Amino acid sequence: MPSVLLTDSISFELGALEPWPSDVKLYQPYEVEHILLQDQANSLAVQVFLRMCGLEFQVEMRSNAEHMSPSGKLPFIKCGAFVVADLDPIVSFIANKGINLTDHLDAAQKADMRAYMSLANNILGNAELYISWCDENVLNEVTCPRYGSVYSWPLNTLLTWRKQKQVTKKLTALGWITKTLDEVYEDVDHCCNALSERLGNHLYFFNDRCTELDAVVFGHVFTLLTTPLPDNRLASIVRSYPNLVEACQFLEKAFFQKPTANTTDGDSDNFN
Amino acid sequence: MASNPVMELEIWKGEWGLPSVDVHCLEVMTYAKFSGTPLKTKITNNPFKTPHGSLPVFQHENECLTKFGEISAYLRKNNHTADFELSPKQCAEAFAYSHLIYEKLVPALQFIWWIDSKNFIEFTRPLYAKLLPFPLNFYYPGQYEKHAKQLAMSLYPEEDDLSVIETAVYRQADECLCLLATKLGEKEFFFGQSPSSLDAVVFAHLAPLLKAPLPSAALQNHLKACTNLTRFVGRVLQRYFPKEIKDHEQAERKITKQESEYSDSEFPNKLRNISIAALISLVAMTAYAMSTGIIQVVPADEGEEED
């Protein structure tokens, strides 16, 4: 069976010939009781990106979304005959159809944008994983109940244990497992500082027009602000950068105007 | 631990004109040069006694640090920084680009060094076997290979085939090199005329890739094609590590001189050896011929008749 990573490039070439279908679906875990920090951040990023491009889609929630995804990453979209997972492949897929948000950027700005996206994914994404799976408090009170909520016993215990092993292995390989919680918070603070410096007093990162970077930062900031955790230090760190919060609120009003059950938590005014 | 008033760094030895073969050691050494820190380097080639089983290890007073982020933060606290000319926005960019390298280039470097079988067997394992003392040279290369494989597997959990992961990882690394080349442009350093922490990080990751004699060199060739990055690496080496370049050139000259001397030295003896060999063979053949009677030496009076 051809691999996902190689067929991506083939499918993009084939997909370029077809226009955007009207029945595109975005698959993610259940919003209210199942989804975890990093998956929610990624899902919101993809949703807001698709809305920025003016592309129609529907959100479908499935308990086995993670296992349906071709590369294991969430969210994934089903577009006609193609299934594409994770933001970067989705952006490339849509770019092949001639739709992208970075036409107004020159080469140096594109390089800057990719660098800041790496920063956000590396630090905020891995911090979300660390806090979900390596902090005992959050693991026992939030992550295990949520991850196992869609399965019956003993499957919920086994699958949660297996996922924890997988995440711990990844964080070990990346060198995050040796960090203390304080160091993780410090890294998040440093990252938010860098993003805040770049944003300045604008609402978008580049040329007052939205790009993938705005989508990624929106996904992470919104998730960190609106997810209740036993220790709210993450939310307070993000809140200490008012320009990031303001940009996030602006994007939420602009692209998620109708509070539907499918998209956000419905807590559009939950930035307290 | 005894308090150490001098800043000391334990590192891996350098080869190919570089001050060290290891990326992390190079990061710290280059940052120290850029920030003017009086850092004393000690070539130990021995990760056995280190806190985390890896080099470099930075020691000063009672501090013992191993990660570049921690070491640069410590140096900054002690007023040794390479980023004093950068605006806050440029500092943010430096931070972002460092993470671009960690996300997109580091997996490829790990792949080239430890997972690519041709490179591992013909280049990496012999290199570390030479550097490490016995019996550590049986243990550490295997450990590093295992870590590299774990990194590759954890980044692509649904893929079992390493060659597919290889393609994806190299594609990301190519993209990263192009982005770095775009960012550097025709400037001397990434943020103008003087080097910063980002220059240290970029140099540390590109220099081994550029200078190592890798058998399987696809990414190395792509880097060589980015001429501004190649010139950047050469510039940093020439300005901040001139001694290592000179030592390397001297060592290379010595090796070629030894090789030519060895082949020259045969020539004066060759003729002598050939003539002695010819003489001996002539004497031996004559003696044999005489003993079997092919040649008869007939004395003046009657000799014995042969059968």
Automatic annotation (TrEMBL), chain A:
<dbReference type="GO" id="GO:0007005">
    <property type="term" value="P:mitochondrion organization"/>
</dbReference>
<feature type="domain" description="Metaxin glutathione S-transferase">
    <location>
        <begin position="189"/>
        <end position="249"/>
    </location>
</feature>
<dbReference type="InterPro" id="IPR012336">
    <property type="entry name" value="Thioredoxin-like_fold"/>
</dbReference>
<dbReference type="Pfam" id="PF17171">
    <property type="entry name" value="GST_C_6"/>
</dbReference>
<dbReference type="GO" id="GO:0001401">
    <property type="term" value="C:SAM complex"/>
</dbReference>
<dbReference type="Pfam" id="PF17172">
    <property type="entry name" value="GST_N_4"/>
</dbReference>
<dbReference type="InterPro" id="IPR033468">
    <property type="entry name" value="Metaxin_GST"/>
</dbReference>
<dbReference type="InterPro" id="IPR050931">
    <property type="entry name" value="Mito_Protein_Transport_Metaxin"/>
</dbReference>
<protein>
    <submittedName>
        <fullName>Metaxin-2</fullName>
    </submittedName>
</protein>
<dbReference type="InterPro" id="IPR036282">
    <property type="entry name" value="Glutathione-S-Trfase_C_sf"/>
</dbReference>
<feature type="domain" description="Thioredoxin-like fold">
    <location>
        <begin position="42"/>
        <end position="137"/>
    </location>
</feature>
<dbReference type="InterPro" id="IPR040079">
    <property type="entry name" value="Glutathione_S-Trfase"/>
</dbReference>
Automatic annotation (TrEMBL), chain B:
<dbReference type="Pfam" id="PF17171">
    <property type="entry name" value="GST_C_6"/>
</dbReference>
<feature type="domain" description="Mitochondrial outer membrane transport complex Sam37/metaxin N-terminal">
    <location>
        <begin position="25"/>
        <end position="144"/>
    </location>
</feature>
<keyword id="KW-1000">Mitochondrion outer membrane</keyword>
<protein>
    <recommendedName>
        <fullName>Metaxin-1</fullName>
    </recommendedName>
</protein>
<comment type="similarity">
    <text>Belongs to the metaxin family.</text>
</comment>
<keyword id="KW-0496">Mitochondrion</keyword>
<dbReference type="InterPro" id="IPR036282">
    <property type="entry name" value="Glutathione-S-Trfase_C_sf"/>
</dbReference>
<dbReference type="InterPro" id="IPR050931">
    <property type="entry name" value="Mito_Protein_Transport_Metaxin"/>
</dbReference>
<dbReference type="Pfam" id="PF10568">
    <property type="entry name" value="Tom37"/>
</dbReference>
<keyword id="KW-0472">Membrane</keyword>
<dbReference type="InterPro" id="IPR019564">
    <property type="entry name" value="Sam37/metaxin_N"/>
</dbReference>
<keyword id="KW-0653">Protein transport</keyword>
<feature type="domain" description="Metaxin glutathione S-transferase">
    <location>
        <begin position="173"/>
        <end position="236"/>
    </location>
</feature>
<dbReference type="InterPro" id="IPR033468">
    <property type="entry name" value="Metaxin_GST"/>
</dbReference>
<keyword id="KW-0813">Transport</keyword>
